[in-house]
Amino acid sequence: MATVNKKQLYIESYGCAMNFADSEVVATIMAENGYATTNDEHDADIVFINTCSIRDNAEQRIRNRLTQLRGNKKRNNELIVGILGCMAERLKDKLMEEEKLVDIVVGPDAYRDLPGLVAEVDDGAKAINVLLSLEETYAEITPTRLNSNGVTAFISIMRGCDNMCSFCVVPFTRGRERSRDPQTIVREARELFEAGYKEVTLLGQNVDSYLWYGGGPKKDFKKLTDEEREHAVDFAKLLEMVAQIDPSLRVRFSTSHPKDITDDVLYAMAKYENVCNYIHLPAQSGNSRILDKMNRTYDREWYMQKVERIREIIPDCAISCDIIAGFCTETEEEHKDTLSLMEWSQFDFSYMYYYSERPGTLAARKFADDVPLDVKKRRLTEIIDLQNEISRKKNKAREGQVVTVLVEAESKRSKDDWMGKCDQHIVTIFPKENYKKGEYVDVIIEKSTTTSLIGKAVGLNKTMNGIQIEEEAVNL
Length: 476
Ligand code: SAH
Ligand code: SF4
Ligand code: F3S
Description:
Strand order of the largest sheet: 2-1-3-4-5-6
Radius of gyration: 23 Å
Bound molecules: S-adenosyl-L-homocysteine, iron/sulfur cluster, FE3-S4 cluster
Largest sheet: 6 strands, parallel
Number of strands: 21
Helix content: 25-40%
CATH architecture of the largest domain: Alpha-Beta Horseshoe
Distance between the termini: 58 Å
Oligomer: single chain
Strand content: 15-25%
CATH superfamily of the largest domain: tm_1862 like domain
CATH class of the largest domain: Alpha Beta
Structural class: alpha/beta
């Protein structure tokens, strides 16, 4: 059947990987209702912007994008503009009042309602659904992979967050934490593998608190009934289930919370060659008083013990970090504690920000945002400079080593080179020769920069590519 006359949907995503994964669920819901996705916004009957509220500048970027979209709407009077995701959830109908071109506002748990909301707009109304849910995980919806390299894919394993870090807007925009049925996760990963994908990243705001007990809001393991407990699946178990799909399928996950990561998870990582040696373990600060004020529920020593434990159980495990500079009341000494924690931990890389007050959060209600902007920026620069120095040094130390790279795409800089990531999640570039996308290639590192390794292929990695080591034939 020809697919002519299908209506066209253009989706643009901002923010974290969970938002990008959600857009792929949205694409499936819309496809089932007669919409094909397009990469050309000017071709579209509907434009959806999946938004992020994590920092003020994330929201500003989206406001600027909406201003640009006014031109599209002028050219096409029928164009429907929908705001999805965290900013929709945070601002609700206010967003419609402030941004006149917006027709639909829909929060992260209401995507199944999108076809209905579009129908309301077709009837000449504006439409909104920002209800949060205690159960929704879109478990059985197979995401439509958008802008995919055909090699790596994200899989959402849980939604929401119950942690209430005082600086963070996510619990307000994404609602209560709930885990997705593990069978649907394994099925999705297996189908990806069968379709030629070689790497899945299991996604959640706090994957270590994943716990399936039959569905519904997060419960403490101790509070489960005997029956629930018998069938319960925690993150370590889920990781094993996904790792066992096939030894040639790489498994990654993000994000780990220092308060929740367990030895069981570390042992599972060590046991399976295809579970990558990489943990994103945000510290946020290196000072215990600030960590307490952030409501992170661990202190500097606890964090350091976790890093030590990781290095004990998985010696070549890369660790990355998130840091916030200039949180409320942070002194110069306390900032120095962050620098010294970074120095001690030797993170392979970090995502670094200065504190941005978010309306409605505990910190906004209770603490003054009292570190002046120029001080926040200066502290952030010191943090970034230090991280760059550490990353440069750590990558330099990999020169001469052989790493296994999963080829993802052509290098952006040269069509003669491949780009992929090594087990430790560091971007690695090497000449293509006859290697192909989706293959695991052993690469000897010859050069490095702050953000990447550069080398030359020495051959296919037999174990990860599932190549049998040939036994010599014996004729009796
Ligand atoms: N769930 C993850 C983090 C998700 S948000 C975790 O707990 O680690 C990603 C990062 O954005 C956070 O780790 C934090 O470093 C940063 N962030 C969150 N809120 C922020 C704020 N108000 N100002 C600056 N950075 C913030
Ligand atoms: Fe935000 Fe904390 Fe939840 Fe991460 S764990 S999403 S920082 S509240
Ligand atoms: Fe942003 Fe929402 Fe993710 S606020 S970081 S898109 S959960």
